[in-house]
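Re: duplicated header lines in exported structure tokens

Our pipeline writes sequence and tokens for each protein into one text file. With two proteins the header for the second block appears twice in some exports. Here is an export where it did not happen, for reference. First protein block:
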Amino acid sequence: MDMKALPPIPIPFAKRWREFRLRDLPILVFAAALSSTVALWRHEIS
């Protein structure tokens, strides 16, 4: 069997969107909540 460069298998947009929602979105929401909490905390202290 000759192993030449095969064309990449296209990934459907729905699958990419689902992976983003499950893997990356929780991290972004956590980071936004954390930065909002820090901003509110600093505003109340100063």
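Second protein block, exported in the same file:
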Amino acid sequence: MKESIQEIAKKHIQNHDYLGWFEEVYQKGKSEGLEIPWVSPDPNPLVKEGCENLKLNGADKRALVIGCGLGEDAEYLSNLGFTVDAFDFSPTAIEWCKEIYSQSKANYFVADLMNLPVNVKDYDFVLEIYTLQTLPEENRGEAICILPNLIQSGGQMLLICRIRDEDEITEGVPFPLTLAEFSVLNECLSLDNSEILLSETDQWKRLRAVYSKP
């Protein structure tokens, strides 16, 4: 497969299609064997460690996974006892999830974070990992403001993303965020824990934060 994911993304972004490249990547992954680097049979290690730190028990609770990809993290939360809703922008990714986890209790559906169904709200636990960083800067503010509406009172959100310094210039996807971009969350959520994690595989720092809704 000669065409790289960066080339696919660049082609779509040049046409102001900031999320459509995901569908092409998943299509080529499913039909042509394109290697998708963020896909794994296991939950993301940062998610698993973060959930273990929180000592989560999902019994009688609802969880939402934003941008679920091929469902590894959604299945992990389901195994913790949560009733899980998980969505992705890519129809192929959701179709693939349902094939991989044909016996899953999780509810997989196609949706756009910027235009969610009205019933997607009031969750006990929300997982946002690496979705915001796929959006260009002009769209991220609106997306970040949507997140508190997904959490019910007393609920929590685990947020993980690449971050950059204010003066750091980046090219191509993903688009790392600055810490200042998350300040709007403090208006209606409490920041319970925040860590800056250094990667062993690339140059990027990552934020792992836990927010709760009073």
